[in-house]
Amino acid sequence: MKKLNFYPTTDIDELAWPEENYDLTIDSPALSFFTDFKNNKPLIVESTWSVLNVKELMQKEHVRLKFVIDENKHFIGVVSADDLIERKIVQKVSEGLERAEIVVADLMTAKKNLKALDWQDISKASISDVITALKNDGERHCLVMDRENHKIRGIFSASDISRRLRLNIDIQEKTSFSKVFTATL
C-alpha cells in the first residue's frame, strides 16, 4: 500500500474548472448537448423497486427520469418524476394495492409507449432542431436510439440544454384526451 501525504493549501489560489464551451448557440450541433450512453452510464432502476424508494432517490439525486430494466437487465421503459406524483400513487392504492407494495413497473411508461429520435438524424441536426422536436412533442426528455444496433444510445434533456445555452426552454406538455380522462379518475 502506498502512503499518501497531505500538503498545506496556503499557496493555492485557484479552483480547477471544467472547460466549458461558451460558444454554444441554438445553431450548435445537437451532439454537443447529447448524453451518450457510450460515454455516460444511463441512470437505471429495476422494475421491482418500490416507487416510494425510487421517488425519494430521484429527489435526492435531482433527477427527473430514470431508465427501467427487468431482472435480465433489459430495457423495458422509463419512470419520470411525473409518474411518481402522489395522485398516481393514491390511484394505485384505490385499486387495492398497499402503498409499500407499489413498484416501478406499476407506474412507469413502457417502452412500447415511448418514441425516440434516430442517432443518424441527430448526428446531422442542430440543437435548435432538437428543441423544436421537444416543444412540438411536449416532452422534457427525448430518447435517441441507434436503430442499426437496436439500442437506446442516449438522451436529450431540456433542462440540460437550457442550462448549457443559458436559455429558458419552456416545454408545454401536450394535452390529450387520454391524459385528461385519466387525470379525472
From TrEMBL:
Keyword field contains Cell membrane: no
Keywords per UniProt: CBS domain
Keyword Membrane: no
Transmembrane region(s): none
Residue ranges of every copy of the CBS domain listed in the record: 38-95, 108-171
Recorded superkingdom: Bacteria
Pfam families, alphabetized: CBS
Protein name, entry field: CBS domain protein
Originating species: Marinomonas foliarum
